[in-house]
Write a structure and sequence with these properties.
This protein has helices at about 25-50, 60-95, and strands at about 5-15, 15-20. The protein is an alpha+beta fold. The longest helix has about 40 residues, at about 60-95.
């Protein structure tokens, strides 16, 4: 498999310009930046709830790393949930395949006899 060629790209995250090398199409890159910025906004909101104010702007490089890790954790959790959902659906399909197609209309032997 041939590796995609990386090209230098300039993106802006939270008003900070970053130079990166990427093979990702620009539309996907912008979508990723929006997701990352939403993560930072969620983190700011959590800080405001916990400490009564948003984060100080002094340590933004650590904040960027924490935001990226937070986002990576969310992605991993969503992938795990999707895998579990797929496994649950596969198990349900196996159970449904075990059910006969021509269920008889006769009463079940369980209900034969006097019910009074």
């Amino acid at each position: 498999m041939k590796a995609k060629k990386l090209h230098p790209t300039r993106i802006e995250v939270l008003g900070r310009a970053l130079e990166i090398r990427s093979a990702v199409p620009e539309a996907e890159l912008h979508q990723a930046v929006r997701a990352l910025e939403a993560t930072f906004q969620d983190m700011d909101a959590a800080c405001a709830v916990e400490w009564g104010h948003a984060r100080p702007a002094a340590d933004s490089s650590s904040w960027l790393i924490l935001g990226a890790l937070n986002l990576a954790h969310r992605v991993a959790r969503l992938e795990r949930e999707a895998t579990q959902h797929t496994q649950d659906l596969e198990q349900t399909l196996k159970l449904l395949e075990a059910v006969p197609d021509d269920i008889s209309t006769r009463p079940s032997p369980l209900f034969e006899g006097d019910l009074s």
